[in-house]
Amino acid sequence: MNEQTAPSVPEETVPFQQWPKVELHRHLEGSVRFETAWQWARKNPALAHLEQEKLRRLIEFDGVRDFAHFLGRFRVLRQLYTAPDAVRQVAREAVEDAALENIRYLELRFSPDHFASHAGFDMEDVASWILEAARAAAHDHGVEVRFLLTIARNYDFQTASRILSIALRFRDLGIVGLDLAGNELMYPAEPFVELFVRAREEGLGITVHAGEAGTAAHVWEAIDRLGAHRIGHGIRSADDPKLLEELRRRNISLEVCLTSNVQTGVVPSLAEHPLPRLLEARVPVVLCSDDPRVSRITLTDEWYNALQLGLSVEALTHLTMQAVEHTFLPADEKRGLRQRLAAEIASLIPGRPS
Ligand code: ADE
Ligand code: ZN
Fold first, then answer.
1. Domains identified in the chain, total number
2. What CATH number does residue 182 fall under?
3. Which of these, 75, 137, 138, 232, has the minimum number of CB atoms within 10 Å of its CB?
């Protein structure tokens, strides 16, 4: 480990909230502040009759640890977008929230269909509203933001294909990748193989939700058929030593989201999360939040959860530096980010000149 990639950090240290962070797996769909959801729900007759606590139970984790139930939150959240300003506000606030916990680099993912379908907006319009609002907030708050477009597994081919076209058209506005999300137990990835192969050929980064509620076989499919550079969750890889070896060999990182995995019921408890085993197997891992406002957590909370699992502060800063290598940034931009983060982390270590 050289000094620039992993400064050594004493255990007694500043609160994690202040540490500079890199977030690579965060859904805009799951980043809606409750107050904002409440404000826009009042304007939709389909939701306006709900009492505040009822709405909360429908869009946040409600104690039911079940994968399909968790994903059901997004069917309600979709209904908030009755006006372009709702979409813009959610995008702006998601970036503000990231800034508040000192996320320095954020890859924010979203499905244009999620924000477009209720009101019948055009997906390209929606994408432009989100990109514009998030980029303005990023500028105001000093966060570097890039975007991934999400295709959900239940989408028809035409919708998925249009999402890829939008991703390619808006690359100049910061779109760097394509994501496959949704219910891997109910919907196969196979119909989307050709789109992901094309996206990769065009130079987009590829990440696929796989091996979350599913199995290691879903992860094999993601890396061998869809060309994934990163895997969303991928925790079931821990069951397959050959797969662990392959992820290590190809430098494919797992985007691990601890609380999400407990809330979706794909791990029985935080204490039983396979993260320590994945790290022991030296598989690349990045620590992420998934759906912070659905889960009622921040990335900072996930750092404390990782600490509970036995990771040291030094390991966490190492994961932060490693995350830079797994961003979908070009090499020169990675270099700049790496230098800025290393300098900031060094300045936080007591007794070291900044
Ligand atoms: N979309 C938002 N959160 C998700 C998750 N945990 N798994 C699959 N798709 C998602
Ligand atoms: Zn996710």
1. 1
2. 3.20.20.140
3. 75
